[in-house]
Amino acid sequence: MHYLNESHILLFIVQILVLLGVARTLGVICESIKIPTLTVKF
Fold it and tell me: Does the predicted TM-score (pTM) go above 0.85?
């Protein structure tokens, strides 16, 4: 059976932080060049 160890958890957290950072950076760039946001209506 394969269990998670500390290095796997650290890698997962780093990957999540990188994804959030890239999303935030792209959001700021899109706002600065006036690209409209996408909205979903239910």
Answer: no
